[in-house]
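look at this stuff:

>
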Amino acid sequence: MKSLFARVALAAAVLAPALAAAQDVTGAGATFPAPVYAKWADAYHKATGARVNYQSVGSGAGINQIKAKTVDFGASDMPLTDEMLAKDGLMQFPTVIGGVVPVVNVAGIAPGQLKLTGAVLADIFLGKVTKWNDPAITGLNPGLALPDAAIAAVRRADGSGTTFIFTNYLSKASAEWKTKVGEGTAVNWPTGAGGKGNEGVSAFVQRLPNSIGYVEYAYAKQNKMATVMLRNQAGAFVAPDDANFKAAATGADWSKSFYQILTDQPGKDAWPITGATFILMHKVQDKPAQAAAALKFFDWAYVNGNQMAAELEYVTLPDSVKALVHKLWGEIKDGSGKPVVVAAK
């Protein structure tokens, strides 16, 4: 796949000097993709000299910052509906797909040993299942030694797309959760202690015995945390990995809309808490050179970043989806209505 920027022309020649002087771009938002964005940004800087400064502050803050135009791009794991985007003059496109995974810190429990269902997971975070040796858990795990200890639930304290993906899944798995708590980047949690960012939840769970939390898989992998197996819609217990995230994403129809939610998807291999992560940008740009520089970075990442993403267990987008994204970029224009980048004929 050739780089779009090897096949495009800047909409106006006068942007060229501005672009050269404005290669550094800023973004803010989701902590879910922060590990891969950091890796891409480092490699991009080494390859081009341009810097991408990304603030891992949570999806809620990222949405607010792009609306306020304090950053060149926002990032969110909660896709915005087409109506929401239109209201604020925004567009969104996906970058990678990953998994949200429950992680535990229970003595003697190794990664992949503990099995849970969505309904039991919901009951834990509802405060209904309070002990590790509760029959709801032991019934799923015959022969596994589980302590007579209180479960310490850990959740996000900030506005979070990871929370949106997790609570969207719990709403599908539990009617009680859907009625009492619902889904969103921030919800009224019935129980649990809050950590800021995927980083904060990871650290909290690692420090707190008998705890359970939820993080993007890259954080669990980097910190060697004990992940659980979950029963998916097909009734199979599956482990979190890039192949199972990819299986969950196979049914997405990106050609209709980039508003795609990938939780609780069919298929025997599908990881049930899978989600894409998205970039938000304004369709009319006050600083078109900055927008062009941001798009140049993501185009470079689409072409050169697949292996880096795979090393962190993210799933990269098919070329067909990237082609749809490239087409969408043509809708980003400067104040006079000229595209920031236009596809070469």
